[in-house]
Amino acid sequence: MHFDNNFDDCNLHIDASIHGWESMVVLNALDVAKTQLYHFTAIVIAGMGFFTDAYDLFCISLVTKLLGRIYYHADGDPKPGSLPPNVSAAINGVAFCGTLAGQLFFGWLGDKMGRKRVYGLTLILMVVCSIGSGLSFGDSAKGVVATLCFFRFWLGFGIGGDYPLSATIMSEYANKKTRGAFIAAVFAMQGFGILSGGVVALIVASAFDHKYKAPTYEVDPIGSTVHQADYVWRIILMFGALPAALTYYWRMKMPETARYTALVARNAKQAAADMSKVLQVDIEAEQEKVDRLGRQKNPMACSRRNSLAAMAFISSAQLALDRKGATLIALCSTVPGYWFTVAFIDILGRFFIQIMGFAFMTVFMFALALPYNHWTKKDNHISFVVLYSFTFFFANFGPNATTFVVPAEIFPGEVAVNLPWDLGSGWKAGAIVGAFGFLYAAQNKDPAKTDAGYSPGIGVKNSLIMLGVINFAGMLLTLLVPESKGKSLEDLTGENEEKTAEAELQNA
What we know:
Blueprint: H1 9-16, H2 25-32, H3 37-58, H4 64-71, H5 85-113, H6 115-134, H7 141-173, H8 179-211, H9 230-238, H10 241-253, H11 258-263, H12 268-279, H13 287-294, H14 307-319, H15 326-348, H16 350-369, H17 372-375, H18 381-396, H19 399-405, H20 419-423, H21 426-441, H22 459-477, H23 489-493, H24 495-507
Helix pairs in contact: 1-2, 3-7, 3-8, 3-10, 5-6, 5-7, 5-21, 6-7, 6-9, 6-10, 7-8, 8-9, 8-15, 8-19, 14-19, 14-21, 14-22, 15-16, 15-18, 16-18, 16-19, 16-22
C-alpha cells in the first residue's frame, strides 16, 4: 500500500522530549501523524470484522421463530410450533458463551504471538463456523439444535478474539488526537452488521415467500410451512461467512503494529521498517532503546480500572434485552448512536459520554418501567417503542462504545489485548445473563399468563426497574474511569512516568 506523508518530521523529536526523556521515534511518528489513508484503511479492515461479528451474533434471533415452526410443530396445536425455553436460550446464548472463552484465549494469544497472526486465525474460525452453522446436520430437532449450538459456540469463540484484537490494533495505529474516533468508528460497524442481518433476513424470506406460495397456518397447519423453508435460516446464517472471507486478504497485508513489534517482540528494526512504509517517511531503528525497555518491569496500576468489567456487564445486559423489531431499532437508534460517538468522542471525551449515556439510559428505563401499565395500552405501543429506542441510542452514544474504546487505550502494549479484556470479560457475562435470563425474568407473575414452557417470573415492569438500577450503578462506577482523550498510549499506561523517573535518577 502507498500512503501520503502528511506530517512534519520535526514534530517527532519535539513530542518525544515533552516528558524529559527521548521516546522512540517510531511511536511518536504514529502519535503525531495527521489523519491519512492508512487510518481509514485500518478502520475498514478492522471494522469489517466487527460488521461480521454483529451480523453473526444477532442474526440468530431473526430465525428462531422459523426454527420452532419447522422442528417443533405439534399436530393439532392451534398455534405454530415454537422453540422450548431451554432450546431458545441455548441457541440464542451459546455464541455469547463462546465469545467469553474466545476473548480470554485469543487475548492471551495476541499478546504472545502478535496481533496480526492471531487476527487471521479468528477470521478463519469465523468463516468456517458461519458455514457450519448453516450446514447443521440431520433433519431431527435434536440433531439440528445440537450441531447448530456446536458451531455457534465456536463461532462465538472466534468473535471473542476479534473484539479485543480489533480495538487494540486500531488504538496502536491511530494518532492521539483522533484515536477515540477511529476506535469508535471500528465499533460503529457493529450497527451496520445488526442492520444488515435484518435486511438479509427480509430479502431471503421475501424471495422464498414469493417463490413458494403457502396457505396460512389456520387453513393448513402442515402446508403453511413448505419444505424449502428449511433453507431460509441456513442461508441467513451462512451469509455471515462472506464479509469475513472478503476481509482476510487485507488483514494479512496489514503490517504488525509498531507498538507490538517494538515493545513486545523487541524488534526495533522491523517496527521502523513497517511504519516507514505506512507513513512514507524514514524512521530510525532504535534497538538500544528497545533493549533498555526490555529490562524494565512495567507495574500496571489496574485497581482503578477494575470497574470496567462491571460497566461492560451493564451495557451488554441492556443490549441483550430486545430481540423484536431489531432492524427498525438498529436503523433509527443503534446506528445513529454509534456515529454520534464517533463524531463527539474526541471533543466531549470518554468520561462525559459514558456518564451521560448511563444517565439517560437510567431515566428512560424508569420512564418505561414506572408507568408500565400505561404503555401496555394499544394506543401507546408506538410511544413505548420510540422511548425504548432512545435507550439504545444512548447505550451506543454512551457506555457500549466507551467500554470498547477505553480498555484499548489504558493498558501497556505487553498486555494490551489480554489484560483489559480479561477485566472486561463482564461485557460478555452480561450478554450471557441477558440471553439466558431475561426471557425467564420478564415472564408474568401469574402462572396462567406465562409463555408456553416458562415458569413465572418477576414481570416486565420489575425487569425494567432492575435494568434502570443497574444503569444507575454504571453511572456511579464511571466516576472511577480515567479520561484518555488527547493522551498518548504511553502516557496512559504510565510508561512515560517510569522512564522519566529513571532518567532523573540517572542524572542525579
